[in-house]
Here is the input.
Amino acid sequence: MITHVVFFKLAEPSKETAQTIQSKLMTLPAKIPQIKHYEVGINIIESERNYDLVLISKFDTLEDLNTYQVHPDHQEVVTYIKSVASSIPAVDYDS
Here is the structure.
């Protein structure tokens, strides 16, 4: 199994923008069958070092993760996120 973790730091943090990102991301499991687990959390502790949201997703194989990455519905959400985020680090690992 591959775990894909992504953090999102918003350029102009707001509850509304965080909720929009969460909503858009949560539409993807119904559209991309390679997703085996998918959760999106909005940060609840105000701290300069904290990111605003996190995505934790799981895929059976690296090929499934790659399919997800290039899927048109995922790319549409990514385009929006890039327009409102200042930083989007990710970690992918065998789990």
About this structure: The mean pLDDT is 97. The first helix runs from residue 15 to 26. The chain is about 35% helix and 35% strand. The radius of gyration is 13 Å.
